[in-house]
């Protein structure tokens, strides 16, 4: 089957998945007010792949059918660049506000399949082979995946290294005739209501005796025993004037319970094998998936800079303070763009003839984004100040009694009409100030674990020889 359309995605979401939001269990995610806007927003991403097919689609190497380029297993520097074009188009569509458009997981699983040798170690040849078959299924059916990696936090001092007695963390309980039973909980599954299937794969390392926690698999969302507890909706109204972003980009996040879920054998990629579990995400995963998510983040920073620039122009703010903040935003966007380009320009082969970008520039960017993104929001609020709240709704705009006053009193500088100014400041508030903005800020701080953790890890992995050599000269030079 080739890449799907938005209508095909929405049809596929009508099943028996167990989704709770607010005070209710949801029977139809597509029509539920908490989800309908984002369901349509995600459907538009599926339609985009056909509207921009030159960038977004490429032929499946085995069937020749057109599939999303995020499923590509890059086999040359040209493939890495080709994939960039498609990822950038998707990021532009949501201006990076949807962090987990399906290309994130598509890129992840293309990498896992391409580097199956990393999964085939420590006796896991069969699991690795099943995963390669699964990736074919994923790309040929254009499956939308959500994923969950992190253990729920109960006691932060202990849970990062779970003991055998831990009965919260997701674990294997037993084998069955057709697969395995898993029980426990994980956080968070972003995109859960809108996904076709759920992926569980390794994240932080487990202790050496943690085999029972070391599982990896993919299963349909409606698998019996899966329960998804969504956070409160931050979706705005469906009016794109009033809520240009929150009307369509609330991708949701869910706490996930596995109540004795049976995973069929052909969907088990790691079966209680801590050695392979602990090594898979220390290998090619990072360099591969960071291309997708740092292209998204770069696009979002570029948007933030454009938005801030347009805000300042609308009120003719030429103050030194405004110019400096705009410059600061531009620096973030340009540094991000340069790091992604450097990583792609220095891509290399990772075995099996598979090519991924260079890791260190993306590692540095990943560690800084949790600080740059909240600062971008702060700058937009500082530039926008009270103007962010002087923004009548679409209905007020259409009111014949109010409209003449709005046009007279709410226009901007340099012939900026009231309507343009109001749209601009509404967009800025939805980006930096609304409930959606607050959730997205939290996402940027934590979705790849915290910036603090990433900075620590980055410097321990970095090659330090040449930096230390610069210092050493001064410590060892002769003193006469
Ligand atoms: C909106 C959102 C969506 C998410 N979506 C998903 C998803 O789809 N799938 C999924 O698997 N997970 C998801 N996650 C979880 C994500 O993967 C992170 O792992 C998780 O949020 C990190 O939480 P943590 O408590 O381990 O962070 P930590 O890294 O422990 O950070 C917690 C706090 O401690 C500080 N800190 C940590 N280490 C240090 C240190 N050494 N020194 C000083 N300070 C330190 C940090 O700065 C931070 O303030 C999501 C999270 C959010 C917020």
Question: What is the topological layout?
Answer:
Layout: H1 6-12, E1 19-21, E2 24-26, H2 36-51, H3 53-56, E3 57-59, E4 66-68, H4 77-93, H5 103-114, H6 116-119, H7 125-140, E5 145-147, H8 156-159, E6 171-175, E7 179-190, E8 197-200, E9 215-220, E10 226-230, E11 253-264, E12 268-271, H9 274-280, H10 285-314, H11 320-345, E13 348-349, E14 355-356, H12 359-384, H13 394-397, H14 403-409, H15 418-432, H16 435-446, H17 451-461, H18 465-476
Parallel strand pairs: 1-10, 5-8
Antiparallel strand pairs: 1-2, 3-4, 6-7, 7-11, 8-9, 9-12, 10-11, 13-14
Helix pairs in contact: 1-2, 4-10, 5-7, 5-10, 10-11, 10-12, 10-15, 11-12, 12-15, 12-16, 12-17, 15-16
The protein binds flavin-adenine dinucleotide.
Explain how this protein is built.
The chain is of the alpha+beta class and 480 residues long. The chain is built from 18 helices and 14 strands. It has a six-stranded mixed sheet, with no helix packed on it. It folds into two domains: 6-280, Beta Barrel (Butyryl-CoA Dehydrogenase, subunit A, domain 2); 285-463, Butyryl-CoA Dehydrogenase, subunit A, domain 3. The protein has helices at 6-12, 36-51, 53-56, 77-93, 103-114, 116-119, 125-140, 156-159, 274-280, 285-314, 320-345, 359-384, 394-397, 403-409, 418-432, 435-446, 451-461, 465-476, and strands at residues 19-21, 24-26, 57-59, 66-68, 145-147, 171-175, 179-190, 197-200, 215-220, 226-230, 253-264, 268-271, 348-349, 355-356. It is globular and about 75 Å long. Helix 12 (359-384) runs antiparallel to helix 16. The structure holds flavin-adenine dinucleotide.
